[in-house]
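User: Could you check the structure of this?
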Amino acid sequence: MLKKSVLLIMVVFCIILLRNSPYADIITFDYLKTHADELKYYVHGHYAASVLMYLAGYFVFTAFALPGAIVLSLFGGYVFGVAAGLPMAICASTAGASAAFFMSRYLFGGYIQSKYAVQLDYFNNELSANGHLYMLTLRLIPIFPFFLINILAGLTKIPFRTFLWTTAAGMFPAGFVIFLAGSRLSEINSPGDIFSQKMLIVLVLFGALALLPVIYNKIRSK
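Assistant: Sure, the predicted structure tokens are below.
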């Protein structure tokens, strides 16, 4: 119990510290637009170091639920391009999401599962059968908060391998759109320009397709 309390305090402290650090004023869309050329010039001159910093930064932002992931993706698309930047972001954000998942499971997951075992029995059985489809749907639809999914998934009994591959695969469609927008940074004036209403509808429908097997089996079982 003491170890968990210490870890929780450390996590909260890190989140507060990072949110109030000078970097909070740098990871913004306005800063990226203003200093885009300077940033690209620096990256080209220090490519290996920039890649390592980008991976580390994306990991930290994802693990500690810090705002600015879209800006980091736009930055990645602009300085690294879609082909190189998107895989880097997916790897780093999946690693960060995994860290949040394990922290949530270690701190609270075991307690909740043991205390509410009876109430969660049906829910756990449903996740055992279709958890990969539910996770994939949540990841594919970008309107669901990414960090919240990490934490809630850690409270369930969903296997980590399922969480891992659905997180990586589910980020690809929306990530591709954002990185493509970043590669054309001069053409957008705000993050709101990235996802049009039609694009959001397409992503929602795309995510809903993952649930078709569940719906079909539910109907057939009746």
